[in-house]
Amino acid sequence: MSPFNKKFAVTWTRAFSYRSISIEEESKLSTDCRLSLSRMLSINSKLMAMFDKNPFDFIVFSTFNLPMTVPPRPWIDRGTGGPLYTAGQDIIRNMFEFKSVRLNDEMRQRIQSPAQGRPVFDALNQLGSTPWVINEPMLDTLKTVFGQSGCKESEPLLEKLGIPMRHDTFDVPDFVREFGNVKKEDVDVEKFRRYAKKKAEAVKMRNESNSLWCWMQYRVVLADHFRGQTLFFPHNMDFRGRVYPLSPYLSHMGDDVNRCILKFAKSQPLGSHGFDWLKLHCVNLTGTMKRASVADRMVEAERLIPSILDSARNPLNGEKWWMSSDEPWQTLAACVEIENAMKYGSDVASFPSQLPVHQDGSCNGLQHYAALGRDNEGGVQVNLTQCETPNDVYSDVAQRVEQKRKQDEESNGEDRDVALKLREALPQNVPRKVIKQTVMTTVYGVTMYGAVLQIKRQLKAMDIPGEDAAIFARYLARKTFASLNDAFTSSMALKDWFRLIAKGASDLMKTVEWVTPLGLPVVQPYCRLLERKSKLVLVPIPMKQVDAFPPNFVHSLDSTHMMLTSLNCANRGITFAAVHDCFWTHANSVDEMNQICRQQFVSLHSQPIVEQCSEWFKTTYLTPRIQKILPPSEVDRFADIFTVKVKQGELDIEKVKDSVYFFS
C-alpha cells in the first residue's frame, strides 16, 4: 500500500450489532431473582453521536399510521372494505405473536350469512366517523412545558406532569472523571464494579427517557401539524372484538397527554345539566374523591372554583392546582372549558362545549362476571346496584383478607405462624394496594403463581425482605382468592367452568372458539406449527387455550356492551367515543348516554349467555362425526363437561338501571 493510501485508510465499524441484555426475572423455584439474557439490536454510539450533531429536519410518518382528514370508508359485510379509499385493510389486527394464523380469514370462514356481524362493523364505522380537532390552547401549554425537557432544573415539574427529560440532561459517570488518568488494571476491583454498575444504571435511565422523549415528540409534532383540521380515527379490532384506533401516535386512546390535546369537532350547548357534568368531570379526574357521593363531589367542585379558574388563566405561573391531579393534563383541559363556560354568566347553558366527559366502568370485568353469575354480594361491590356512595371492590377484598388473617392468628391452624409473622412485618390492616392488581387481573385469568408475584412486588416496595415477602405473598394470594370466592361465589365457579370447557376443547385437539352476542366469530389463535405426515399443521397450545379463554370471553362481552351503547347513541344522534370501558360524550348528553349504557348492559345480560355458551360447545365440539369416532363413554364425559352446573345467585339485573355508580 502506498503512503498516500496509508494516510487516508478508513477503518469501518459496524453501525448495528446484537447485544445480550440481562433482564431480571422472578423464579418459580427460588425466592431470589434470576437473570435472563435477551438479544437486542444495538446502535453504535458514534452513529448516535452523529445523529445528535446533525438532527433530522423532518419526521416522516407512514400515512397508514396517521389520523384521517376525511371520513373513513366504512367496513362492510364480512369485515371487508375499510378506512382507506385506495386499498383494503384487515379489520382484525394481525399481531406478530400470531403470525402463523390468518386471523381475518378464520373469522370470515365462520360467518354464515352476509348479515352476520353487521352490528360489529357498524359500531366500528360509528366510532371512526366521530370528528375531532386539536385542543390548541392545551397544545400550546404542552409545547411550552415540553420545551423545558432539556433543562435539568425543570425535572421535578416535568416528572409530576409525565413529561420525559431529554437524553442530554443525564449525567453518565465517566472513567477519567471518576478515577483520573489511570489504567483500568490499576483501579481497585470493588471500586470499578461500583462505577460500572452506576454507569450501567445511568445509561439505562438515559436510554429509557430518550425513548419516551421521542414518543412525546411524535405526538407533539403531529398535533401541531394537524392544527385547525378536522380529524377522524378509523378503528379496527383484535380477534376478541376489542376496538382500537389505527393511529398509534395520535388518538384519544392514549395517556393523559394524548387525551388532553383532543376534543370533539362538533360543539353542543351545555343545556340544563351540562355545566354540572363539566365540574363533576373535573373533580373525577383528580382521583381524590373516588369513594365520595356525587353530591359531595359537587360540593367540592364548587369549593374548588377559584383554583379551577386560576389553573385555566395561569397554568404555569399561578397556584398550579391542576398539577396535583391524578390526570393533570386532562384536568387542566377541564379547567379551561369551565372557565370559558363561566364567561357566559347566567346564560351558561348556551355555551358551546367540545370537551368530552368520561364515564368509567367500576372494575368492568368483574361487573360482567357478577352479572353472568347473578352474584348479589359481588354485584354490590362492583356497583351493579344502587348505593349512597360508590363501593370499592379492592377495599372490600382487602378487608376480607384482613379478617381471614385475624382468624388465622387466633386459631391453631397451619397458617397461624405465617399470619403472626406477617403481623410483625405488616402491623397495619392489609393495604388495598397490596391486593389491588391481583383482584383486577382475576378477570384476566391470573394464576396463583402470577398473583404471588404481584403481591410480592408490592410487599418488596414496602421494604419487606425478599425471602419473607415470598412467604407472605403466597399466604396473601391464597387469602385473596378465597375472599374473592366469598363475594363472587357463582362468578368464580363460572370462571372455573370456562377453564374446564376450554380444556375439553383442547383435549379434542381443537382451538377454542365462540360467537359474540353481536355475531362476531372469535377463534383463539394460540397455536404452533407442527409437521404431521409430511404436512405443516396448526396445533392448539392447550395451556394457552385454557388460560386465555375466561378473560377473552369476558373481553368479548365488554366489547359487545360498548358496541351496543355506541350504536344506540348513534341512533339518537349522540356523539360517542370509547376507550374500552370508558365512555365519552358531550356534557349535555351524559345523562342520556348513561341511560343507554345501563339499558344495554341489562339487555345483554338478560340473554342466557352461559346456557348459550354450553350449547355452542356441545354442537361445535361434539359433532356427529366426532361422536362416531369417540367411544360412547367419552362422548358422555365431554357432554357432561360442556354442561353448565353452576347455580346462579339472586342478583336482580334490572337494578343496574338505577345504579348511579355503575359507570360514573
Automatic annotation (TrEMBL):
Q: Into which family does the record put it?
A: Belongs to the phage and mitochondrial RNA polymerase family.
Please tell me the species this chain comes from. Caenorhabditis briggsae
Q: Which GO terms describe its biological process?
A: DNA-templated transcription
Report whether Nucleotide-binding shows up as a keyword of the record.
no
Q: Which GO terms describe its cellular component?
A: DNA-directed RNA polymerase complex
At the top level, the lineage of the source is Eukaryota
Q: Which InterPro entries match?
A: DNA-dir_Rpol_C_phage-type (IPR046950), DNA-dir_Rpol_phage-type (IPR002092), DNA/RNA_pol_sf (IPR043502), RNA_POL_N_sf (IPR037159)
Q: What does this protein do?
A: DNA-dependent RNA polymerase catalyzes the transcription of DNA into RNA using the four ribonucleoside triphosphates as substrates.
Pfam families given in the database record: RNA_pol (PF00940)
Residues in DNA-directed RNA polymerase C-terminal domain copies: 268-623
List the molecular function annotations (GO) for this entry: DNA binding; DNA-directed RNA polymerase activity
Which reactions fall under this protein's catalytic activity? Answer: RNA(n) + a ribonucleoside 5'-triphosphate = RNA(n+1) + diphosphate
Give the EC number: 2.7.7.6
Q: What's the protein name?
A: DNA-directed RNA polymerase
Its transmembrane ranges are none
PROSITE patterns xref list: RNA_POL_PHAGE_1, RNA_POL_PHAGE_2
Record key words, sorted: DNA-directed RNA polymerase, Nucleotidyltransferase, Transcription, Transferase, Transit peptide
**SUPFAM superfamilies per the record?**
DNA/RNA polymerases
